[in-house]
Amino acid sequence: MGIKDVINAIPEEDFDQWARTHAPELFAAIIDSETTELLTTVQGIDPSATVSDIESGALSALTGGGMPATEDYADNASRPPMVFADVQSQNINDTGNVTFAASTRADSGWSHSTGSNSFSFSGSPDRVRVDVMVSAQIANNVSGQRPAAVIELRKSGVVVCSSRTGYIRDSTDHEESSHTIVFCDPSPGSNPSYTMTSRRDSTNSTTVTSVLGHFSAEAVL
Question: Which terminus of the chain is more solvent-facing, meaning fewer CB atoms within 10 Å of its CB: N or C?
Answer without folding.
Answer: N
